[in-house]
User: Fold this.
Amino acid sequence: MHEMALAEGIVDIAMDYARQNDAHRIAEVHLILGELAGVETASLTLAFDSLVRGTIAAGAALTWERVPLTGRCHDCGGEMHIRPQDILCPACGGGMEITGGREMRVDYIEME
Assistant:
């Protein structure tokens, strides 16, 4: 299960930051997830909740912000929301470069 491995990494990051900051409780872990990250959020939440049981993160909210897939045209320089199959610019037909939407990172951790 891909999401279990992701959840383990997220929990490790949160616990490391909590230790570094002498926190006694983790209330929220917020993620940035790109449209192409391929994360099933329901499964990720389930895995996260099971991993934090009995820890200072028990009951912590796992929240996220989705980042749309965006691209920039090599020819006209236009930047826009694209679909994964858009390899050509819809405006001029030039080649597209993906500029956003692959992100997968912990954005912030709310601790006490």
In short: The chain has two helices and six strands.
